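Field reference: sequence -> structure
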Amino acid sequence: MSIAAIETALEQKLLAIADLPAIAWEDVSYVPTTGSPYLKVHHLHNSPRDLFMERGPAELPGIFQVSVIYPAGRGKVEAKRLAERIAEAFAPVQMLPAGNHRVDLLGTPAIASGFPDDEGWYVVPVSISWQAFPV
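Structure field:
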């Protein structure tokens, strides 16, 4: 199993998108700049699915959650445009190498409704479903 390699492959795919704002990575201290949009990344892993009855390879499913965060009051259009760019970059069908696994992007990423948070930001979550298989 190589969770770190899977997460790295997804993060590298995100970084390949041109002109992204700053990114708040998991477990890395980040203080947003007032008035500047940014992205917030979370890796959500689901339970592995065994492919055989006895010991053997397993499918590793998960969601790569990328939240687009814009200053509240600047309108939702730019935030949703950026969310759409991210979803397009992860559109199916794609296969990413990830160490001893292959990450399959087989479903269209989901862009959720935007919402204001309690700290003066407008948040648009983008959920990118993936499955990883041993190679």
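Note: Residues 3-15 form the longest helix (13 residues).
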